[in-house]
Amino acid sequence: MTEPSLLAASVRPGVPAHVALVLDGNRRWAAQRGLSVAEGHRSGIGKIPDVLEWCEEEGVAMVTQWILSIRNLQRGPQELADLYQSFISLCERLAEAQRWRVRVIGALELLPPPVAAAFEDVQRRTEQVEGVQANIAVAYDGRREIVAAARSLAQKYRARGPQESVGDLSWWEGEFASHLGTAGLADPDLVIRTSGEQRLSGYLTWQTTQSELYFCERLWPDFTREDLCEALDSYASRQRRLGL
Protein backbone atom coordinates (compact mmCIF):
# COMPACT_ATOMS: atom_id res chain seq x y z
CA MET A 1 0.00 0.00 0.00
CA THR A 2 1.29 3.46 -0.86
CA GLU A 3 2.51 5.49 2.08
CA PRO A 4 0.07 8.25 3.12
CA SER A 5 0.95 11.82 2.36
CA LEU A 6 2.75 13.69 5.10
CA LEU A 7 0.45 16.62 4.32
CA ALA A 8 -2.71 14.64 4.98
CA ALA A 9 -2.69 15.43 8.69
CA SER A 10 -3.23 19.12 7.92
CA VAL A 11 -6.42 18.56 5.92
CA ARG A 12 -9.68 19.76 7.45
CA PRO A 13 -12.19 17.08 8.49
CA GLY A 14 -14.31 15.98 5.53
CA VAL A 15 -11.85 17.33 2.95
CA PRO A 16 -10.06 14.72 0.81
CA ALA A 17 -6.30 14.74 1.28
CA HIS A 18 -5.70 13.85 -2.36
CA VAL A 19 -7.90 14.89 -5.28
CA ALA A 20 -7.19 13.49 -8.75
CA LEU A 21 -8.77 15.02 -11.84
CA VAL A 22 -9.35 13.87 -15.41
CA LEU A 23 -9.32 17.06 -17.47
CA ASP A 24 -11.78 16.16 -20.22
CA GLY A 25 -13.63 18.27 -22.77
CA ASN A 26 -11.18 20.78 -24.27
CA ARG A 27 -11.96 19.90 -27.89
CA ARG A 28 -15.73 19.81 -27.41
CA TRP A 29 -15.56 23.14 -25.60
CA ALA A 30 -13.75 24.68 -28.57
CA ALA A 31 -16.13 23.13 -31.12
CA GLN A 32 -19.17 24.52 -29.30
CA ARG A 33 -17.70 28.03 -29.63
CA GLY A 34 -16.38 27.81 -33.14
CA LEU A 35 -12.82 27.98 -31.88
CA SER A 36 -9.77 26.01 -32.92
CA VAL A 37 -8.71 22.87 -31.09
CA ALA A 38 -5.54 24.71 -30.09
CA GLU A 39 -7.62 27.41 -28.38
CA GLY A 40 -9.54 24.74 -26.51
CA HIS A 41 -6.35 23.15 -25.24
CA ARG A 42 -4.83 26.50 -24.27
CA SER A 43 -7.93 27.35 -22.26
CA GLY A 44 -7.93 23.95 -20.58
CA ILE A 45 -4.22 23.96 -19.73
CA GLY A 46 -4.57 27.50 -18.42
CA LYS A 47 -7.17 26.26 -15.93
CA ILE A 48 -4.66 24.01 -14.14
CA PRO A 49 -3.05 26.65 -11.86
CA ASP A 50 -6.51 28.00 -11.01
CA VAL A 51 -7.64 24.57 -9.81
CA LEU A 52 -4.45 24.18 -7.78
CA GLU A 53 -5.18 27.50 -6.10
CA TRP A 54 -8.80 26.53 -5.35
CA CYS A 55 -7.76 23.16 -3.94
CA GLU A 56 -5.14 24.80 -1.78
CA GLU A 57 -7.67 27.25 -0.38
CA GLU A 58 -10.15 24.43 0.29
CA GLY A 59 -7.54 22.51 2.31
CA VAL A 60 -6.64 19.78 -0.19
CA ALA A 61 -3.04 18.68 0.35
CA MET A 62 -2.37 16.87 -2.92
CA VAL A 63 -3.74 17.30 -6.44
CA THR A 64 -3.07 15.12 -9.47
CA GLN A 65 -4.18 16.32 -12.91
CA TRP A 66 -4.12 14.11 -16.01
CA ILE A 67 -3.25 16.30 -18.98
CA LEU A 68 -2.22 13.78 -21.67
CA SER A 69 -2.78 10.04 -22.10
CA ILE A 70 -0.71 7.62 -24.16
CA ARG A 71 -3.65 7.35 -26.58
CA ASN A 72 -3.62 11.12 -27.03
CA LEU A 73 -0.18 10.79 -28.62
CA GLN A 74 -1.93 9.38 -31.70
CA ARG A 75 -3.54 12.73 -32.45
CA GLY A 76 -2.49 14.85 -35.42
CA PRO A 77 0.96 16.46 -35.47
CA GLN A 78 -0.36 20.03 -35.43
CA GLU A 79 -2.68 19.39 -32.46
CA LEU A 80 0.18 17.78 -30.56
CA ALA A 81 2.53 20.64 -31.43
CA ASP A 82 0.03 23.15 -30.05
CA LEU A 83 -0.46 21.02 -26.93
CA TYR A 84 3.26 20.75 -26.35
CA GLN A 85 3.65 24.52 -26.54
CA SER A 86 0.88 24.90 -23.95
CA PHE A 87 2.67 22.38 -21.73
CA ILE A 88 5.93 24.33 -21.91
CA SER A 89 4.08 27.52 -20.97
CA LEU A 90 2.36 25.71 -18.09
CA CYS A 91 5.67 24.44 -16.73
CA GLU A 92 7.15 27.91 -16.78
CA ARG A 93 4.08 29.36 -15.07
CA LEU A 94 4.17 26.75 -12.31
CA ALA A 95 7.92 27.16 -11.82
CA GLU A 96 7.68 30.94 -11.59
CA ALA A 97 4.80 30.77 -9.11
CA GLN A 98 6.93 28.90 -6.55
CA ARG A 99 3.67 28.01 -4.82
CA TRP A 100 3.26 24.28 -5.47
CA ARG A 101 5.68 21.35 -5.45
CA VAL A 102 5.37 19.71 -8.85
CA ARG A 103 5.92 16.04 -9.61
CA VAL A 104 5.49 14.58 -13.08
CA ILE A 105 4.09 11.08 -13.60
CA GLY A 106 4.26 9.36 -16.96
CA ALA A 107 6.49 8.30 -19.83
CA LEU A 108 8.44 11.49 -20.49
CA GLU A 109 10.62 9.57 -22.94
CA LEU A 110 7.66 9.53 -25.34
CA LEU A 111 7.57 13.33 -25.50
CA PRO A 112 9.77 15.57 -27.66
CA PRO A 113 13.00 16.37 -25.76
CA PRO A 114 12.20 20.09 -25.23
CA VAL A 115 8.83 19.20 -23.70
CA ALA A 116 10.29 16.49 -21.47
CA ALA A 117 13.00 18.94 -20.40
CA ALA A 118 10.37 21.53 -19.43
CA PHE A 119 8.64 19.03 -17.14
CA GLU A 120 11.94 17.94 -15.61
CA ASP A 121 12.88 21.59 -15.08
CA VAL A 122 9.67 22.48 -13.23
CA GLN A 123 10.16 19.50 -10.93
CA ARG A 124 13.70 20.62 -10.14
CA ARG A 125 12.75 24.26 -9.60
CA THR A 126 9.86 23.47 -7.22
CA GLU A 127 11.25 20.48 -5.29
CA GLN A 128 11.88 22.59 -2.17
CA VAL A 129 8.54 24.42 -2.26
CA GLU A 130 6.32 23.80 0.75
CA GLY A 131 2.66 23.64 -0.07
CA VAL A 132 0.25 21.59 -2.13
CA GLN A 133 1.80 18.59 -3.86
CA ALA A 134 0.88 19.17 -7.52
CA ASN A 135 1.24 16.03 -9.62
CA ILE A 136 0.99 16.20 -13.39
CA ALA A 137 0.17 12.98 -15.27
CA VAL A 138 1.45 13.36 -18.84
CA ALA A 139 2.00 10.66 -21.46
CA TYR A 140 0.39 8.49 -18.83
CA ASP A 141 -1.54 5.22 -18.95
CA GLY A 142 -2.41 3.08 -15.94
CA ARG A 143 -1.84 -0.27 -17.63
CA ARG A 144 1.52 0.84 -18.98
CA GLU A 145 2.50 2.02 -15.50
CA ILE A 146 1.61 -1.38 -14.01
CA VAL A 147 3.46 -3.29 -16.73
CA ALA A 148 6.52 -1.08 -16.28
CA ALA A 149 6.42 -1.62 -12.51
CA ALA A 150 6.15 -5.40 -12.98
CA ARG A 151 9.11 -5.39 -15.34
CA SER A 152 11.15 -3.29 -12.94
CA LEU A 153 10.30 -5.60 -10.06
CA ALA A 154 11.21 -8.68 -12.11
CA GLN A 155 14.54 -7.15 -13.05
CA LYS A 156 15.28 -6.33 -9.43
CA TYR A 157 14.78 -9.91 -8.26
CA ARG A 158 15.99 -11.73 -11.36
CA ALA A 159 19.39 -12.56 -9.88
CA ARG A 160 18.28 -12.99 -6.29
CA GLY A 161 15.11 -13.66 -4.36
CA PRO A 162 13.69 -11.23 -1.80
CA GLN A 163 14.75 -11.62 1.81
CA GLU A 164 11.16 -11.33 3.00
CA SER A 165 8.74 -14.24 2.89
CA VAL A 166 7.49 -14.77 -0.66
CA GLY A 167 4.13 -15.76 0.79
CA ASP A 168 3.56 -12.36 2.38
CA LEU A 169 1.36 -10.73 -0.25
CA SER A 170 0.98 -7.49 1.72
CA TRP A 171 4.76 -7.09 1.58
CA TRP A 172 4.70 -7.72 -2.17
CA GLU A 173 1.93 -5.16 -2.59
CA GLY A 174 4.04 -2.48 -0.96
CA GLU A 175 7.11 -3.55 -2.92
CA PHE A 176 5.16 -3.37 -6.18
CA ALA A 177 3.77 0.08 -5.33
CA SER A 178 7.32 1.33 -4.77
CA HIS A 179 8.01 0.71 -8.47
CA LEU A 180 5.05 2.77 -9.72
CA GLY A 181 5.38 6.34 -10.91
CA THR A 182 3.42 7.43 -7.83
CA ALA A 183 5.81 5.75 -5.36
CA GLY A 184 5.65 7.51 -2.00
CA LEU A 185 2.42 9.37 -2.81
CA ALA A 186 -0.94 8.83 -1.16
CA ASP A 187 -3.63 7.14 -3.22
CA PRO A 188 -6.43 9.49 -4.35
CA ASP A 189 -9.36 9.91 -2.00
CA LEU A 190 -11.50 11.52 -4.70
CA VAL A 191 -11.36 11.33 -8.49
CA ILE A 192 -13.18 14.02 -10.48
CA ARG A 193 -13.80 13.68 -14.22
CA THR A 194 -15.27 16.50 -16.23
CA SER A 195 -17.34 16.54 -19.45
CA GLY A 196 -19.95 13.99 -18.33
CA GLU A 197 -17.96 10.90 -19.30
CA GLN A 198 -18.35 8.25 -16.59
CA ARG A 199 -15.22 6.13 -16.79
CA LEU A 200 -11.61 6.37 -15.62
CA SER A 201 -10.00 5.42 -18.96
CA GLY A 202 -6.98 3.84 -17.30
CA TYR A 203 -6.28 6.72 -14.93
CA LEU A 204 -4.29 5.63 -11.86
CA THR A 205 -5.55 2.07 -12.28
CA TRP A 206 -3.64 0.66 -9.30
CA GLN A 207 -4.13 3.67 -7.06
CA THR A 208 -7.91 4.24 -7.37
CA THR A 209 -9.23 0.94 -6.00
CA GLN A 210 -10.72 2.69 -2.94
CA SER A 211 -11.22 6.17 -4.43
CA GLU A 212 -14.56 7.95 -4.44
CA LEU A 213 -15.65 8.95 -7.95
CA TYR A 214 -17.40 12.16 -9.01
CA PHE A 215 -18.49 12.92 -12.57
CA CYS A 216 -19.08 16.54 -13.51
CA GLU A 217 -21.07 17.51 -16.60
CA ARG A 218 -19.04 20.67 -17.13
CA LEU A 219 -16.44 20.68 -19.92
CA TRP A 220 -12.99 21.18 -18.44
CA PRO A 221 -12.32 24.79 -19.59
CA ASP A 222 -15.64 25.80 -17.96
CA PHE A 223 -14.85 24.04 -14.66
CA THR A 224 -15.38 26.46 -11.77
CA ARG A 225 -14.60 26.69 -8.11
CA GLU A 226 -18.28 26.02 -7.45
CA ASP A 227 -17.96 22.75 -9.39
CA LEU A 228 -14.97 21.81 -7.27
CA CYS A 229 -16.82 22.61 -4.06
CA GLU A 230 -19.81 20.53 -5.18
CA ALA A 231 -17.47 17.58 -5.69
CA LEU A 232 -15.88 18.14 -2.28
CA ASP A 233 -19.31 18.40 -0.66
CA SER A 234 -20.35 15.15 -2.32
CA TYR A 235 -17.23 13.48 -0.96
CA ALA A 236 -17.87 14.85 2.55
CA SER A 237 -21.42 13.46 2.51
CA ARG A 238 -20.32 9.90 1.77
CA GLN A 239 -19.56 7.25 4.36
CA ARG A 240 -16.30 5.65 3.30
CA ARG A 241 -16.18 2.04 4.45
CA LEU A 242 -13.11 1.15 2.35
CA GLY A 243 -14.34 -2.41 2.03
CA LEU A 244 -14.73 -2.92 5.77
What keywords describe this structure?
244 residues, alpha/beta, 6-stranded parallel beta sheet, 7 helices, 6 strands, metal-binding, magnesium, EC 2.5.1.-, UPP_synth-like_CS, transferase activity
Short overview:
The chain has 244 residues and is an alpha/beta fold. 41% of the residues lie in helices and 11% in strands.
Walkthrough of the structure:
Pfam families: Prenyltransf. Belongs to the UPP synthase family. Z-FPP synthase subfamily. The active site is at 24, 72 (proton acceptor). By secondary structure, the chain is an alpha/beta fold. It has a single domain (16-237), classed as Undecaprenyl pyrophosphate synthetase. The protein has 7 helices and 6 strands. The chain has a 6-stranded parallel sheet with strand order 3-4-2-1-5-6. The longest helix has 22 residues, at 37-58. It is globular. The chain starts with 17 loop residues before the first strand and ends in a 7-residue tail after the last helix. The relative contact order is 0.19. Residues 1-10 have low confidence and may be disordered.
Q: What CATH architecture do you see?
A: 3-Layer(aba) Sandwich
User: Low-confidence spans: pLDDT under 50, at least 5 residues?
Assistant: 1-10
Mean pLDDT: 92
Q: How would you classify the helix and strand content by structural class?
A: alpha/beta
Question: Gap between N and C termini, in Å?
Answer: 16 Å
EC number: 2.5.1.-
Family: Belongs to the UPP synthase family. Z-FPP synthase subfamily.
GO molecular function: transferase activity
Binding site for substrate: 25-29, 41, 75, 193, 199-201
